[in-house]
């Protein structure tokens, strides 16, 4: 039996009469990179927002580290959903210092996370002058400040050039050895299959597949089969 850091049971979210996700049952093993895959509009972001308390489930349950999810668990969860929450007129260090003050963390943590994401040499350069890849890495640094056991990244390679993608890929792969489980949401299969250990494929708001990312079946073929089987009208 796998040691799970996160599990959802019959997780559903509706907006009025529209069902965004239905009966999602994720099983995320500890100290792995879990790829949450699916076409645009499939329900990935809605699912992640429920895992982080940004949306309240319509029904179902979430278990974190063996117990029912509670808002206090957010102290063990790092999140980067959509754009990095940066003050563009501040340097990387100043952005991080604002967060350490808010979270009551020691200032020494700033140097630790800057080293982790390879942004120690940015000096007085303001975040608004960063490349997209540097902004994404600073966003991840912010998410790492509280020593999370679970890191949730929603489409982190969007807008990155090949070098930025490679750097981010190597960074994500390094986290499980540090005791950090990663949930990585994406629709770009070629990027995901190089970093993930397990995958879940969502299409039409339904989890159509969950298992090892390194099975016998080709990931692209599997993805297309699941997407076709659960495609909603209008997608």
Automatic annotation (TrEMBL):
Positions of the ABC transporter domain: 6-229
One Pfam entry name: ABC_tran
GO molecular function terms attached to this record: ATP binding; ATP hydrolysis activity
Keyword Cell membrane carried by entry: no
CDD domains: ABC_BcrA_bacitracin_resist
Domain of life: Bacteria
Keywords: ATP-binding, Nucleotide-binding, Transport
Keyword Transcription: no
Family: Belongs to the ABC transporter superfamily.
The protein's name in its UniProt record: Lantibiotic protection ABC transporter ATP-binding protein
Source taxonomy: Bacteria, Bacillati, Bacillota, Bacilli, Bacillales
């Amino acid at each position: 039996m796998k040691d799970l850091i996160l599990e959802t049971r019959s997780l559903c979210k509706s907006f009025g009469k529209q069902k965004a996700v239905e009966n999602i049952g994720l099983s995320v093993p500890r100290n792995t990179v879990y790829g949450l895959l699916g076409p645009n509009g499939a329900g990935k972001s809605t699912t992640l927002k429920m895992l982080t308390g940004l949306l309240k489930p319509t029904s179902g349950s979430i278990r974190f580290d063996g117990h029912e999810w509670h808002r206090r668990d957010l102290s063990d969860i790092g999140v980067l959903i959509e754009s990095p929450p940066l003050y563009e007129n501040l340097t990387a260090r100043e952005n991080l210092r604002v967060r350490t003050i808010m979270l009551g963390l020691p200032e020494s943590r700033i140097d630790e996370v800057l080293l982790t994401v390879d942004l120690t040499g940015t000096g007085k350069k303001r975040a608004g002058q960063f490349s997209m890849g540097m902004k994404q890495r600073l966003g991840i640094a912010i998410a790492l400040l509280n020593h999370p056991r679970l890191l949730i990244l929603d489409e982190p390679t969007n807008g990155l050039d090949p070098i930025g993608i490679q750097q981010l890929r190597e960074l994500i792969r390094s986290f499980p050895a540090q005791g950090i489980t990663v949930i990585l949401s994406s629709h770009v299969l070629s990027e995901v299959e190089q970093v993930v250990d397990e995958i879940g494929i969502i299409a039409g708001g339904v989890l159509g597949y969950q298992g090892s990312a390194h099975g016998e079946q080709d990931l692209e073929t599997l993805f297309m089969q699941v997407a076709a089987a659960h495609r909603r009208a209008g997608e």
